[in-house]
Structure formats: structure tokens, C-alpha cells
């Protein structure tokens, strides 16, 4: 296999690196972009924050220990200090740049900030401008065959019905009421930051203002949050400025723990639904604004990586004008509903309860789903807002004796409402992701021998959701995520 260049940020750099080194140890070179001040720091990050993860256990055993694995990694992986939000990806070593431009044939862009309400300047710099910088770098590679960009299926916003694997037009908005101008958005960010700094605004004020600005701009054009809005703009720039460079866009849905490879249940950090599952097991999350029959589109992380590898192999030697898009999803072929996940969670934590700080088992009740936003607000008002107002009144009468408690409770309630507002579009989502392009890709696997089917499986039809949630995903959350 020829050289590959992987951009660091998402945990996918770990999944992908592990998979490639395990199944294709003869690969010539992997260039891994790492946020670090210099090459030594970048190398140290790869060895300590990537290779030493439990995810690499199978590779460590294969090479006879961590020492041999580190030696193998040092031979195959080049740590590149840099960051996608800068020109030339922030790579300051010109000799290294020339080496990469000379040798690289496929570039993969994993880089993203995935917080729904990330600072607008940060999200724009990584998810939008960062994608353009990766494209610009790819155009300088003399042997480039393709750029593979990892996005998200939820760039569709809150569309309903069958959602096709279609690309965006430059400056396209989802609501059609305003023309989106990406250059103007960048200018707005710069002007807002300059105004805040001119007023000597605190860092807390800057963060809050930029988060609110991102949500405001996203909703102005029809997207529910800053993350999917800036990822959509990144796709627009790729499609518009790609010229003759083949671009493949992978759009996964909600990514969960590994289904099979390198072993079942591994996950790095909590994702959208996982926070609710763990909060429920702890007895802290008891209700959610959500429709029970909402299809929640989940896909295991190793299936996403398998789809990426098969897309690379299938398209690396083809020339195509428009970006090819793959939805890596389950809703079309093997749907799971929120009510299913609620039932699996109840059964799991009833049988395997977590313990509280005193070591006693936490009893969980049936999870409440309030199927309208109005019902949720009424529930919050009765259960939390009215008691809080009463406590504030008592606090006033008793000369601020309970000020600390009321301040903490008020802040916590505002956070809950903000998070509920951010997650609401996905708890009432009415879309089904068409995966026709992905199915065609799977058909090419089925035409090969059985070993290849097993090694690169990303068919959601094979997932038994009850078995996966009860025996793989929830146990994986409790094993590999600090909670």
C-alpha cells in the first residue's frame, strides 16, 4: 500500500490507524497530523495518547509487547506537528512539507470539533476553513488520487423523509430564506472578536458570546447547531474548490462503540446518546423530551472505518467530477427506536445496577419520554422551577442563607435546558438516511471471498440491536469511559 496521510483530531485517527496497521502492516508510511509544538512532542503524543490505548491491545499482542509495537509504529508513522485551521496545515518544517507533497497519494480528513454549541470561531476554523486548508494541501501533492473527508449525516439539518446522499451547492441554506455567504460569516466572526477585545471582554464573555453567535447563525440558515452548520459549510468549500481532485465524503450518523474489531465494545468518550444512557444508570436522568417512536440512527465505529477503507480502495483509481457521498447509517435497513433503547437501558441497569458513592445499588425507574416540547417544559416547571423559586424566596427572607444552593441549582437548571434544546432536533428527528451508494459499495464486498466480507463489514443488517446494546455497547461504556 502506498503512503497515506491522516489528519488528527477525532478518535477516528486511532480506529483507522489501528485497523490499517493490523490488516496492512506492509504499508509504506502514515503521516499523522498532531496538535503539538514540535516533532518530538507530536511523536510523544502518538505513542502515549494513541498507541498505548486499550484499542491497540490486539496489535500489541501481535508484536509481542508494547516495546516492539512502539518500534513498529516509529517505522511506519510520521508524527507531523500542525493544525488544520492554519494555511499549509500549520506545518512549519518546509522539508517535511515537500516530502509529503512528493509521497502522499491519499489524504484523509478526520479533523473536527463536534460540540453542538462550540465557539463559532473555533468551529468555523476547524470544520469549515480547516476543510479548505486540507483541500489546498492535497492539491499540492503530485501523486494525489483522492481526498476522503469525514463529515456527518446530520448536515441535513432537520429534514424529514428519505434523505439522499446529495452534495451541497456553495452558499446554499437549508431554509432558503437567506443566501449563505461563507466569506461574510468569517468576516462576522473576526469583527465580533475584535469588538469584544476592544471592550476588554473577559475570556468567559468571549466564549459565551461566540457560542451564542454560532447557534444564532446556524438557525438563521436552517441548521439546528453550530457543529452541523460548520460541517456543512466545509462540504460546500470542498465541492466548489475541488477542481479536478476526486473527493469522497463519508457521512456517518451517531457513532457507537466497536461492533467487532479489534474487539467489541471499545469507545473513546461519551457521544450524543451515551450521556443520557450513563446519566440514566446513575439515576440522574429520568426524563427526556423525545418521541418513543423516533428512529435513532446508530452505527458502530469499526463499521465506519470499514466503509472508509472500502471507499478508498473502490475510488482511488477512478476519476469523477462531483464529490461521492456515502451515508454510513442504519435507519434505512435496520432501524432502532428510542423506545427500544429505553427498554434496553431499563433491563440492563435493573440487572446490573451502578453503585452510588455510598456503595449502594442505584435503582432505576422506567424512563419517561415526554413527546412534545411543551410537555417537557411543563414537567421542568413543576418538578424543578417552582421549587427553585420557592427556595429563592426563602433565601431572600433568611438573608441569603441558601444563596450557594440557589445559585448552583439555577445554573444547573439553565444547563439542563440548554442541553435539552441542543439535543431536541435528534429526539424528534423524522428522517431516514438513504444509503444507496453505501449499499453499492457493500455489494462489491459480497462479491469477494468470505474473509474480505468479515474484515470490511459495515452492513447494519447484521446487527442484533438487543444483543449489541445489552452485551456490547453499554458494558463498553462502563468499561472504557470514565464516568
From TrEMBL:
As recorded in UniProt, its EC number(s) are 1.2.1.84
Q: Where is the Fatty acyl-CoA reductase C-terminal domain?
A: 384-482
What are the recorded GO MF terms, alphabetically?
alcohol-forming long-chain fatty acyl-CoA reductase activity; alcohol-forming very long-chain fatty acyl-CoA reductase activity
- Matching SUPFAM superfamilies, A to Z? NAD(P)-binding Rossmann-fold domains
Q: Which reaction does it catalyse?
A: a long-chain fatty acyl-CoA + 2 NADPH + 2 H(+) = a long-chain primary fatty alcohol + 2 NADP(+) + CoA
Q: Which InterPro entries match?
A: FAR, FAR_C, FAR_NAD-bd, NAD(P)-bd_dom_sf
Q: Where does the signal sequence lie?
A: none
Please name the CDD domains in this protein's record. Answer: FAR-N_SDR_e, FAR_C
Ranges where the Thioester reductase (TE) domain occurs: 16-308
Q: Which GO terms describe its biological process?
A: long-chain fatty-acyl-CoA metabolic process; suberin biosynthetic process
Pfam families, from UniProt?
NAD_binding_4, Sterile
Q: Which UniProt keywords apply?
A: Lipid biosynthesis, Lipid metabolism, NADP, Oxidoreductase
Q: Which domain of life is it from?
A: Eukaryota
UniProt cross-references to Gene3D superfamilies, sorted A to Z: NAD(P)-binding Rossmann-like Domain (3.40.50.720)
Q: What does this protein do?
A: Catalyzes the reduction of fatty acyl-CoA to fatty alcohols.
The entry sums up its family as follows: Belongs to the fatty acyl-CoA reductase family.
What is this protein's name? Fatty acyl-CoA reductase
